[in-house]
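Re: beginner question about structure tokens

> Can someone show what the tokenized structure looks like for a real chain? I only ever see the sequence side.

Sure, here's an example I had lying around. Input first:
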Amino acid sequence: MDPLRSNLSRVRIPEPTNRIYKHECCISFDTPRSEGGLFVDMNTFLAFGKDYVGWNYEKTGNSVYLHINQTKKLVPEDRPSKKPTLLAIGVDGGFDNNEPEYEETHNIVILPDYVTFSFPSVELPEKVRLAVDAILMAEGEERKEQLAAWTADKKQISAYAMNLQQIDNGVTVPPSGWKCAKCEKKENLWLNLTDGMILCGRKNWDGSGGNNHAIEHYNETRYPLAVKLGTITADLEAADVFSYPEDDGVLDPLLAQHLAFFGIDFSSLQKTEMTTAERELDQNINFDWNRIQESGEELEPIFGPGYTGLVNLGNSCYMAATMQVVFSTRSFYSRYYMNLSLKVAFEMAPADPTVDLNMQLTKLAHGMLSGKYSVPAVEKDDNSNAATSASSKQEGIPPRMFKSVIAASHPEFSSMRQQDALEFFLHFLDQVERVNGGKPTLDPSRSFKFGIEERILCSSGKVAYNRRLDYILSLNIPLHEATNKEELEAFQKSKAGEVSEGKDVSSEEIVRPRVPLEACLASFSAPEQIQDFYSTALKAKTTAQKTAGLTSFPDYLVLHMRKFVMEEGWVPKKLDVYIDVPDIIDISHMRSRGLQPGEELLPDGVPEVEAESNKLLANEDIVSQLVSMGFNHLHCEKAAINTLNAGVEEAMNWLLSHMDDPDIDLPISQEAQGTEVVDQSKIDTLISFGFQEDIARKALKASAGDIEKATDWIFNNPDASVSSDMDATTSSITPTADNTGLPDGGGRYRLFGIVSHIGTSTQCGHYVAHVLKDGRWVIFNDSKVGASVNPPKDMGYLYFFERLDS
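And the corresponding structure tokens:
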């Protein structure tokens, strides 16, 4: 016991607030089930695999470790399965995933000689026994995230349920034979619980579903709750109740009473319709889902370096798909794998390596690229309890610590909700750039960065140039350039006939527009008319023409297809379209040349008289309402101006978040207006939703940089004009974005990666990656990795191209 007693001062008894890691090594993906088990530092409560615990001893001098080792134990073949009561896996009440059970042993190990003492043992010092008990009883940090990932959001009781008003209009709902009151639809029917109207549900993006009559009825009447007919059984909690004002599925504790009002005896009803959740799942098992995931194909599983799958942590496929493509690039491969060992990264990391992005990126890179974890999973022989055969699947690695670090500065990515792969990609590169700040030679994100130059030609014949830097080229999809217009017209006629007969069009029959990628690239460079452009040459508003080009060509070019657009009435819609993408593209013609001989720049600045006439004044109604609440008049004026007079609520929010600004009491000046810098990554996010860049910038200014509020602002201001923001106040072509040090070269690129999306919006559905590796296409579908038979090159959401050496 002497080696242990001499190191007792290094042993700590964990407090409830301490983060304890005991399920995964903090610098590798080793677990207690790995060879050699896991060693928990009894001073820092960080865990290390057998190959790495010595590094921690060398770095910290901490010598006392709790060794946790798990070995598979025999399980009776006739173990009964419990019926799940929760949409979850591996938690109490959730699905039994038939995981083998493990026997866990504990020892106290003293480094550097690995002197070992058994636990439990009465001979151990009391401090050690208390510390080990606390560690074993505590919920590990990794497990906390795992439970949260697999537990689905529970429905909440509707705020409208308890006091729902029901209209006695003599309606009695029959037990069957329902039909929409406004069309011929007999499926996807909803009963409004206020007036008893039976109406069809929403139309899906692919044309299936209902005709929106239920939602239209709510918009006309504001009757809040509806229940889906066909989902009502004796188990009322399973019924699909939707709250329109809360825009979510809800619980109605008084549903039995509300149904009885219309003569419905729920106890005798049988389930005939899928719930919304079931329908969403069913819609995913369609042509797109099968095509993108290559379902039905005999995919050859691939193992080895660079072919490691990533475990889905709960709606984390957006991250998995993106990271598989990113770590297929030379820049990230070199930075975090070839040129940086795990030991060096650990030595450079702070005391807690779990919160260091460079450490966790190195851990992820070595986990994905080394091949250590890309091995066939061991399958259990059903006839004996021995592990006897190798599976064609791999277990993959769970990137929990990486997700925790990269999401620390972004509340949405810390959640377990599905996210936009584009938004994650931009956030990821921004974080990588930050941690490599001041070291451009090390920063791998620069391999994606390039310059964009916009040229504005005034009707006076003079020009202005604006520049910015970006990581992605976001492209509109010009449907009018489709190459299969005749097929489309024939399909639309056929579809109209089937719909009129009440028939649904099967996914196999659907004909989608085919648009060449060249047309999308051409639309980026095509001239665009700017109305009400203020010309400093003419000293008046006029019409100008804007064109755009690239000032540099990056090592890796990422094309984002704007598949999500806004229809008339500001309704978001996903374009059901194929993009014909060649393996090789040449964008040399898209290079911007800057100021050309013979071009004359627009004069600098705006005359004082013009500036005064264009000055935005505070809306007096907004100001007076805020002043009546007790706010300072000057502060209220600033709030109204900085939110572009959007409304009292927007101004109030701005005011509350800027009350402590050092310049809040300074007089309003025109010079101070319009200088607020808007985060370009947030602008890119709104662009990915289908909004124009200038409107996105204006909305973010009005919403203090909040993306959600900016989206609401755009919806509430459909007539918002951006002309005032497009006035040229300077004609200097001094670059506002510095191209110095950015990679540049020829314009020929080869396609090497595709991130595809299945679902009605970027916030739901599933993401899959296809990557060209070693001369063949490989599919990365979370933890599944295989040779691709038919990569969906025409269905991508993000396309990754690598520049070809000239």
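Each token stands for a local structural state, so reading them left to right follows the chain. The chain is about 25% helix and 20% strand.
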